[in-house]
Structure formats: C-alpha cells, structure tokens
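Researcher: Here's a chain I'd like modeled. Treat it as a single chain, no partners, no ligands.
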Amino acid sequence: MGTMLAKDAAGITQTVPTIAPGTVANPSPEVVTIQQAVGSLPFRFDGSATVQPVTAASLPPSIGQKPGSGSLGVVLASDQTAIPVKSSTPTAATGVMVAVTTNSPGTTYATLPAQVCTSLEIFNDTGVSLDILRPAATIPYRLADGRLKNFMGITDASQLRVKRTDSGPTQVTVNAEAITA
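Model: Modeled as a single isolated chain. Structure tokens:
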C-alpha cells in the first residue's frame, strides 16, 4: 500500500493510502473483492431485469479512493471480466397508523380496522402480552410487551386479529402501522 498527499474538503493537506491494483490470480491484499463463479447468475440487487456490466473502461477516471470522502473507491483487477451490476431507484413506503381495542372479556379476538397494506408493524406497548392471529392460522403469534413484530405478506390490516394472552377483562389499545411499499 502506498500513500499520496491530498487536500480534504476544508483544504487541509493530508496523507492518504492508495490501493495497489492486483489481478484475479494475484489480488492486492488491500482490495476486498466479490467474485462470481463461472456460469453463475449475475449479482442481483433489485427485482428489475436490467443488468449493467461494469468494466475498468466504463468507470470514470475519478472513481478511485477519494480523500476525505469516507468511501472506498472501486478497483477492478486488470484480468477480471465485466461485473454485472443492477441498479434501481428505491421506492418510498407509506404508512398509516391504525388501532384496535381488545375485547372485554379478553377471550375473543378483535379484528384490526380495514387498511390496505403489504405489511403491518405492531409495537406492543400495552403492558401485557398479545396473541395475534393470521388468516387461516390456528396457533397465534405471541408478542410480548415491549416487542416489535412486522407481519408481511398481507393485503389488509383487517386480516390480523388480536387479543390479550392472559384473557384478562381490562381492554388495551393495540397500535400498528399499515405499510404499503
């Protein structure tokens, strides 16, 4: 590993390490690599069908380690073939708060209100353990007080039902966030 002098964002000159490139057969010890086996599928980072190969020739000259940036540069071995990389723009998720009060007595389940969602996140701050029942389930998920659980694979919050684990008569309010990705 060598060093070079560079100015950071504040204009202060500092000594920073440089990374010596290697080859696949003889990698540089300073370089962390991800290698793909011959004949395997490309690396996938999202669900799109676009694969964008990255080669040393396709990288801008400024891609090396940037002093003061806190990020590592990308170094390709001189004998390494293209690395397929997929990129996408992240999508924002939206959340709507919903609440349900347990039944009294607590021997029967209360259904959460209707709210379209792809997952439901429940943080149990009720002071008691809750039993949460999914559609067609016969054994409930037990959520202890102070715990968080994200129920995925649903289409509406009303698919989940809750009750106190101890079947106590005192009603508690269960708050949840219905998330749509």
